[in-house]
Design goal:
By secondary structure, the protein is of the alpha+beta class. The chain contains 23 helices and 19 strands. The strands form 7 sheets. A 5-stranded antiparallel beta sheet has the order 5-4-10-1-14, sandwiched between helices. Strand 11 (385-388) and strand 12 form a beta hairpin. Helix 8 (208-216) packs antiparallel against helix 15 (419-425). The longest helix is centred in the middle third of the chain and has 31 residues, at 292-322. The two termini are 25 Å apart.
Length: 622
C-alpha cells in the first residue's frame, strides 16, 4: 500500500508516541545534500529492510513513512523517516524459496578477501543455516556484489564512516555464526560444537563463556526490594529460542542504527515547515500458514484502509450531505468493526486478550501459553471472528477471511530480550556493540511493553500524522503471481480491486463531482470569463456565473456545475479544462493564440508519424 500525503504542519522533531526516534543533526545542510540523501539512502534501506519472497524478489519487509520538509520557496530542506513492522523473524526463519534480508548476501558477495577471512564468511553460503534453510541463496538477474558497492556508497552519503561500516559487517557476520550454534539435552543444554560459539564471541568481542551462559540460562530478577538475581538453566529448545532472540535483536538494532544515521544526515530542526509525506508499507498478506507477523501486518492495513474509507468514500458522501446536494448514498463496507475486533478496549479485542495472557502467564513453555491464549479467544463473540481450537482463529478482514495459527503468538508478543543477553553484550570490548545495548537492566522496574502495544502505538501515531494531511493514493495492483511481465490474471486483479474498495470509490467518483472549491475562490477565478473588457462588470454571485456559462458555453452541459451551501461542485474534469481554456483566452489572448498554433503543428506531426511506431507485444490475459 502506498500514498502521498501533503500538509503544512510543523516538522517532526522525533521521538515519542511511536514516531521516529530523536536524532542529532550534523548541522546545516544544503538543498542538494537533502536531495542526495533522499535518493542515495534508498539502496541502504532496501538492503537492510527488503528480501526475496515467493511473490516479489525485492519485497519491503518493513513499513516506511518519509516526510520531506520544504521551505517557503518549496525547496527540500530536510526530512525524516519513521519505520514500522520490521519483519525481524526473517533473520532466523525464511519460507521455502525465500531469502533472508538482502544485506547478508550482498556482504558475503561483496567484501574483499581479507575482510571475508576476518569475518569467517567463506564462499559457500549454504554453510550458514540462517541463509540456506529455504533452499534459495541467489536471485536471477540480481548481482549481490554490485549491489553491495551501492550500499557502501550509500553509507558514505549518510555519514557512516568506513570504520563504522566495518563494525556493522562484524555484527552481521556474528548473526550468521550465532545461527550455527546448536544445543542438546536437558537444562542446562549443552553446546554441540564450540566452534560457532567461539567465532560469534570473537566477532562480538565478548568472552565465549559469557555468551554461552547467556544462551543456555535465563536471567531473572525478583521483584523484592533486595532484587535477588537468578540464573535459570534452559533446555535445548529454550536455548534455541534465546539464540534466535539474540540474532533478531542484533539485527533490529542495526536496522534502527542505519535509519537513525539516515535521519541525522538530513535532519532539520526548524518549525513550521511544509511537509510532503510518502508512505510505503507492505500490503495485506494471506499465506498458507499465517502467524503473528501476518496478524500485525494485516492489522496495520486495516487501520490504513479505515483512513482510505474515511477520506474518500465515506468522507466524500458526507460532504455532499453537508452541502445540501442531491445525493443517494452508495453502500460500502466500513471496516471499523474489524479494527475494534483487533484493538478494542471494551469489549477487549484480540490484542488486549493477548496482552492479558502475557501479563498473567509468567512460566511455562510456548505450547502451554498459547493454549491459555486459545482458551481466552473462545470467549470472544464477534460477527467477523471464529475461534478454531486447538490452535487457530479466523478473522473476516476487509480483504477476505484469514486463518491464523496461534503457535508462538504469546512468545512473539512478549518481545522481551532476556536481561542475560543484554548484560552479555554490555561486556563486549567493542564500543559500537555496547552502544546498541544502552539499557540498565538493574534498575528497570517497569513492566515491559508487548509487541502488540508498540504496534498499536506506532499505528496510532501514523494515523494521526496522516489525518492531518491531504492524501493522494497510489494503489498497486499485482497483475500475476508469476513475477513476469505482460501477463494479466483477471481473477487475481478482480480480487484486489474488490477488497481495496476501489469499486465503491469509483462509483462515488462517477456519480459525484470531480472538482469542488469554495464559492468565493471559484468566483474570483472564473468571473472574468463573462466579460470582454476589464471595464465590464463581473458576475457578483455563483448563480450569475453559472447562468452565463449555461447560455454562452455550449460545450458545458447545463447540469455540470452545481452550487452547494459553501462550495461549487463540478462533475467532470473536462468542464474545468474548458473553463481554464476560456480563462487563458480572456486574460492572455496572444499567448492563447500561440499555444493553439503550437498544438495544431504538433497534431499535424503526430498524424504524419501515425502507424510508424514499433510493434508492441500483446499482454496475455487469462
Amino acid at each position: 500500500m502506498g500514498g502521498l500525503f501533503a500538509g503544512g504542519m510543523p516538522a517532526l522533531r522525533g521521538g515519542g508516541g511511536g514516531g521516529p526516534r530523536p536524532v542529532q543533526s550534523r548541522g546545516p545542510i544544503s538543498i542538494d545534500q537533502v536531495k542526495k540523501v533522499i535518493v542515495d539512502s534508498n539502496p541502504l534501506l532496501e538492503a537492510f529492510g527488503n528480501a526475496k519472497t515467493i511473490r516479489n524478489d525485492n519485497s519491503s519487509r518493513f513499513g516506511k513513512y518519509l516526510e520531506i520538509q520544504f521551505n517557503d520557496h518549496n525547496s527540500p530542506v530536510g526530512g525524516i523517516i519513521s519505520t514500522f513492522l520490521l519483519e525481524k523473524t526473517r533473520v532466523a526463519f525464511q519460507g521455502k524459496d525465500e531469502r533472508n534480508f538482502h544485506i547478508f548476501y550482498q556482504m558475503c558477495a561483496g567484501v574483499d578477501s581479507s575482510t571475508k577471512e576476518e569475518l569467517g564468511l567463506g564462499d559457500d553460503l549454504t554453510y550458514f543455516y540462517y541463509l540456506a534453510q529455504s533452499g534459495c541463496t541467489k536471485v536471477d538477474g540480481v548481482d549481490d556484489a554490485k549491489d553491495f558497492q551501492e550500499v557502501k556508497d550509500s553509507m558514505r552519503t549518510v555519514g557512516i564512516a568506513d570504520s563504522d561500516a566495518h563494525e556493522i559487517f562484524r555484527v552481521l557476520a556474528s548473526i550468521l555464526w550465532i545461527g550455527q550454534i546448536r544445543f542438546k539435552g536437558n537444562a542446562p543444554a549443552q553446546i554441540v560444537d564450540n566452534g560457532p560459539l567461539d567465532y560469534a564471541a570473537y566477532l562480538l568481542q565478548v568472552p565465549p563463556d559469557v555468551l554461552s551462559q547467556s544462551l543456555n540460562h535465563k536471567y531473572i530478577q525478583s521483584g523484592s526490594a533486595r532484587g535477588t538475581q537468578y540464573q535459570v538453566p534452559q533446555n535445548a529448545d529454550q536455548s534455541d529460542a534465546i539464540r534466535d532472540a539474540l540474532a533478531k535483536t542484533l539485527y533490529s538494532r542495526l536496522f534502527d542504527y542505519v535509519v537513525d544515521r539516515v535521519n541525522s544526515s538530513m535532519a532539520n530542526g526548524s518549525d513550521n515547515l511544509k511537509v510532503v509525506g510518502v508512505l510505503d508499507i507492505y500490503g495485506f498478506e494471506i499465506f498458507q500458514d499465517n502467524s503473528f507477523e501476518q496478524f500485525c501486518i494485516n492489522y496495520v492495513n486495516e487501520r490504513l484502509q479505515q483512513i482510505f474509507i474515511e477520506l474518500t468514500v465515506k468522507g466524500e458522501q458526507e460532504e455532499y450531505h453537508e452541502e445540501g446536494m442531491k445525493w443517494k448514498d452508495i453502500e460500502f463496507f466500513d471496516n471499523k468493526i474489524v479494527c475494534e475486533l483487533i484493538e478494542g478496549k471494551n469489549p477487549p479485542g484480540i490484542f488486549r486478550v493477548l496482552d492479558d495472557v502475557c501479563r498473567s502467564v509468567h512460566a511455562g513453555d510456548s505450547d502451554t501459553t498459547d493454549a491459555k491464549f486459545m482458551e481466552k479467544l473462545q470467549t470472544l463473540s464477534h460477527a467477523h471472528f471464529n475461534a478454531n481450537p486447538p490452535n487457530g482463529f479466523t478473522i473476516k478482514h476487509y480483504a477476505g477471511k484469514v486463518n491464523y495459527n496461534i503457535n508462538g503468538f504469546v512468545f512473539k508478543n512478549k518481545d522481551n530480550l532476556f536481561p542475560g543477553l543484554i548484560l552479555a553484550m554490555q561486556e563486549s570490548q567493542s564500543g559500537y556493540i555496547k552502544s546498541l545495548f544502552p539499557e540498565d537492566v538493574s534498575d528497570d522496574k517497569k513492566a515491559p511493553t508487548t509487541a502488540g502495544f508498540k504496534l498499536r502505538t506506532s499505528a496510532q501515531y501514523l494515523v494521526d500524522r496522516l489525518s492531518k494531511c491531504t492524501p493522494h493514493y497510489i494503489r498497486c495492483i499485482k497483475s500475476n503471481d508469476k513475477k513476469v511481465p505482460m501477463s494479466f490474471d483477471s481473477a487475481r486483479v478482480q480480487h484486489q480491486v474488490k477488497y481495496l474498495g476501489l469499486l465503491e470509490n469509483v462509483k462515488v467518483k462517477r456519480s459525484g463531482y470531480a472538482y469542488r472549491n469554495l464559492k468565493h475562490n471559484f468566483l474570483q477565478r472564473y468571473a472574468v470569463i463573462c466579460t470582454k473588457t476589464d471595464q465590464e462588470p463581473k458576475p457578483g454571485s455563483i448563480s450569475e456565473l453559472v447562468s452565463w456559462v449555461k447560455t454562452n458555453v455550449p460545450d458545458i452541459p447545463s447540469e455540470e456545475i452545481e452550487e452547494g451551501k459553501t462550495k461549487v461542485f463540478v462533475k467532470t474534469p473536462e468542464t474545468i479544462f474548458v473553463l481554464e481554456e476560456l480563462l487563458y483566452k480572456r486574460t492572455d489572448p496572444e499567448g492563447y493564440a500561440l499555444k493553439v498554433a503550437e498544438y495544431k503543428e504538433r497534431e499535424k506531426l503526430a498524424k504524419q508519424h501515425a502507424g510508424t511506431g514499433r510493434y508492441k507485444r500483446n499482454c496475455v490475459v487469462c
